[in-house]
Amino acid sequence: MSDTSQAAYYDRVWTLGHVWSPQAWPEWSIIAPYLESCPRRLEIGAGLRPRLPVKDTLFAEISPIALDKLRGRGGLPLLASADQLPFPNESLDMVGACEILEHLPDDEPAFAEIGRVLRSGGIFFLSVPMQPALWTRHDDLAGHYRRYEPNALTVQLARYGFQVERFSPGIAGGYARLKSLGAWFLGRFPRAAILLEDRITMPLGARAQKSIRRYETSIPPDSTAPSGFVLCRKQ
Question: What is the pLDDT of residue 137?
Fold first, then answer.
């Protein structure tokens, strides 16, 4: 998927979708305890699925459709990309980037920008697909450039001054078959697939994961998880 078609696809997703409550996500229990000490917050590429409370949170996004809907819920939207954040050095307490870094042709500038704008001791959280061997047609349709290898991701984060504090692996059971089915449905019935994901499959999946997600203090180098949520602190 080209960058142009990827942008058009997500505009369609955000047109049909609704703004999610951050409490719907299984990672909310990890993020919530940090919010009081992190009033200056930014989420990058959240679309309509923010992990941070919408009201008074800064949102850097390239979709005007998503920005308008976030503004309507009290968010502070900015038309900006992950590799060019319009903030002074060390001006933010918390930065989030969930399901965004894998969509960038080169993710290194984004990691560098996040490290630049985040204060010492600040919190950076991200979620990404993992395990290159698990690549499916769904990754192609979603516009992914990579799936992350666990050990390499830890090294990459450390290179920009981030130390992992919490890791929550995604559920592995039946992953490839589920993604293959999703890709088939998305390729043939895109509008129906978007609505089904937004209203039924993702809410049910997020609810199911809340009760069975486990949390670790580092990313295991031998993790077999197909995805992961990572919370780091800038050193």
Answer: 84
The reported pLDDT for the residue numbered 197 is 72
Tokens of 75: 């968010």
Distances (CA, A) of 151 to 68, 198, 218, 231, 232: 38, 32, 10, 15, 15
Could you tell me the maximum CA-CA distance found in the chain, to the nearest angstrom? 47
Helices (H), 100-230: 108-117, 137-142, 150-159, 175-188, 190-196, 202-212
Using CA atoms, how far apart are residues 22 and 28, in angstroms rounded to an integer? Answer: 7
What is the β-pairing status of strands 41-44 and 92-98?
parallel
Cut 0.90: pTM above it: no
The string of DSSP letters for 91-114 reads: -EEEEEEES-GGGSS--HHHHHHH
Residues 6+ apart with CB under 8 A from 154: 164, 218, 219, 221
Residues of the chain with pLDDT under 50: 175
